[in-house]
Amino acid sequence: DDDKNRGSLxxxxxxxxxxxxxxxxxxxxxxxxxxxxAKTYTFSVEKRGTVGITRGLQMRWEDTxxxxxxxxxxxxxxxxxxISFDEGLRLALGKGDLYADDYFTVSTETSTxxxxxxxxxxxxxxxxxxxxxxxxxxxxxxxVIPGLDLEFFSSSEKPVTVSVLGDTEVAKERIHDFVDAYNxxxxxxxxxxxxxxxxNTAAPLLSDRNLSQMVNEIATTTIATVSGLPQSxxxxxxxxxxxxxxxxxxxxxxxxxxxxVDAFSNVANLFRTHGKTDNPDISFLGMTxxxxxxxxxxxxxxxxxxxxxxxxxxxxxxxxxxxETNNVLIIKNNGRVSDPIELRKDNYTLGSLAKTIQNxxxxxxxxxxxxIQVREEEGRLKIISGTFGNSSTxxxxxxxxxxxxxxxxxxxxxxxxEDVAGSIGxxxxxxxxxxxxxxxxxxxxxxxxxxxxxxDDLVDEQEATVNISKGVAVKLGDKLDxxxxxxxxxxxxxxxxxxxxxxxxxxxxxRLNKRADTKRTRLxxxxxxxxxxxxxxxxxxxxxxxxLSAMSGARKS
Length: 557
Description:
A five-stranded antiparallel β-sheet has the order 19-37-21-32-33. Strands 1-2-8-7 form a four-stranded antiparallel β-sheet. It is elongated. It is 27% helix and 28% strand. The protein folds into five domains: 7-107, no CATH class; 170-271, no CATH class; 275-306 and 420-483, no CATH class; 308-415, Sandwich (Immunoglobulin-like), CATH 2.60.40; 500-541. The protein is of the alpha+beta class. A hairpin with a 2-residue loop joins strand 34 (430-432) and strand 35. The longest helix has 67 residues, at 490-556. The chain is built from seven helices and 37 strands. InterPro entries: FliD, FliD_C. It holds the Pfam family FliD_C. This is Flagellar hook-associated protein 2 C-terminal domain-containing protein. One of its GO terms (cellular component) is bacterial-type flagellum filament cap.
């Protein structure tokens, strides 16, 4: 209710003087205070002057939480005109004189019933703000940092550091699982390739060269040094893991416990991918199996810092009037379009107009979480995208039947952002926003760095050196992926060999069966011929026998 929040303050109620003069311009503060947090505003006079007459006459304001702005009340200002300055509040000064360093304060009150608000946190924030903004509809954020559950009970004006300690029990459990898996593989390999003298039988893969090669490669990878780590912590035996003469792995529990407690990160680095740079503005994000480790590290030379796209309006006067002709605008960010943004009809300073547009943007369903910034710059409105890179753009359009020229948003310039550019390991890398990725088919293929350097941070020489390492678990994973490659892995080759042998055996059996069938047919024909011959011979024998018998009878008679 405007009447409730309107107060006309005379000099004796508000302005306090330190200059020896007495400011005598009447003050009126009006409007609906929008937030649910009470503030106190302090207004101070920049220099002596007469309201509406003196060129460059300003009043500076600052709130309880460090917010600040200024109001032009000199030449061109009509005394008594309300000017919006912050959170729905307006200030009007009547005719009169102001003296430098005089000031007055305005305190606000809030309703006991508050509107619900989102949780807002910034990762990587500094005292000046910045950082990645995250919003949630409740005070729990369990998906911001993998493996970390966060619950918030109050807000903080200063950055809060969250320290995360490694879970030693889970780490030991995972290492035991690793050792068990390694020993299971070794035992299985021996079982399928042994010869049992007692039964004089051979296992299926006895003397199989592919199995022997796999066993040797896995054992060699496991006991090898992890390049890129300090010599004192670059092998498994340094944390108490040993392989005996039977090829089985064992754990020296006392040594492992000591290492996990005293140097958790060093133990983790023995198993995982790890990377670090010597520049806090260049962060290691990850790598792939194609990335090769260089013990000396890779030089990182940034030739162009990533930039955000922005829209810069045309110059504006000290007082900006928003009415029914210019109170609706539409903002496009990276091709995504906001709902129509409606501004309250009022008189604004450049700072209060920027803040009002910022607040309306934060409430927008399409762009509210995209971290777009609206600020004043050299007497103009500047709208800055929340993302970096070539695809980062800001465009402004008027609402239906509206004209934004009086807001400086008609003939402004839209400038797209730029991708980070540079080289890793003296080879030109690929930039996408603030992400710098090693060139394909190079030693740094797949290496990913997050670069937050500004243009002022760039130097003629390299900006950083990145050192990377691949732990035992990662190298074994890469090795097993190659061994099990469905196109050219050892297992595929072994399977192809066995399949080829079985096919060869089948072909040999088929040939032998054909030969046997041919020989059987030939023998059957011979047998049939022999049987026929034997039949004829028996017939002839019978005939001869009859003739001989007849001849013998004739002689006797």
